[in-house]
Design goal:
With 136 residues, this protein is an alpha+beta fold. It has three helices and seven strands, in the order βααββββββα. The protein has helices at residues 10-31, 40-57, 117-135, and strands at residues 2-4, 62-66, 69-73, 81-82, 89-91, 94-101, 104-110.
Length: 136
Amino acid sequence: MTVDLPAQLLADRLTWALAVACAVALEAMLLRHPGLPPGPGLAAGGLLLLWQWRQRRRRPVRVAIGPDGVGVQLRGASAPLRATGPRARVLGRSVVLHWRGAEGTGTMWLTPLDLPRGALRAARVRILAARAAVAG
């Protein structure tokens, strides 16, 4: 089963919100001290948003779930990469996928808001099976 990922994952939206909150909090702290210049909070928030935008461009576009495991297909790649690496985890009803390839390594958090229920359940089963095979 192959599932296209949404344009904005929940983790992406949370990261955007935290970067904005960081900028606002830093600017509010700087306003309490009259001798400090304004703007570093906005610069820090801008750098965090730029980093997140760059990371999002490297994010996979599809998740492939099959009997042999879970794979991710990166933008422009023809074949999926195995995503049940050593850092793949099950976190309650969500999963964290980890992959390594020629383009580098990556980690992605998928929640019930990102994938259909059946696909997420299948991914959890494959990750748990891969971890059990390594441990056993």
